[in-house]
Amino acid sequence: MIKVVAKAKLKPGIAVEDYLVQARELVAETRKEEGCITYALHQDINDPSVVTMLEEWVDEEALNRHGQAEHVKRIVPGLKELRESSEINIYKEVE
Description:
single chain, alpha+beta, 3 helices, 39% helix, globular
């Protein structure tokens, strides 16, 4: 199983709801993907301009397919324009 933590800080002056509308569409479409176990959007309690996607995938192949999905290619560029910074960490379980 692969876990992903994708954290973003929105640019100053960006309406958080503008980001969330697009991100919610990404969540809805991604949850339909084969190999997606969990895909959920979270917002920092103390700073609403910090949003994090917590993801679980059956394997790296499923995650790689996700990156090539039509909805990802359509939605993610718009999300990137609203971000000041982002950090994506990909984890595998240590046995």
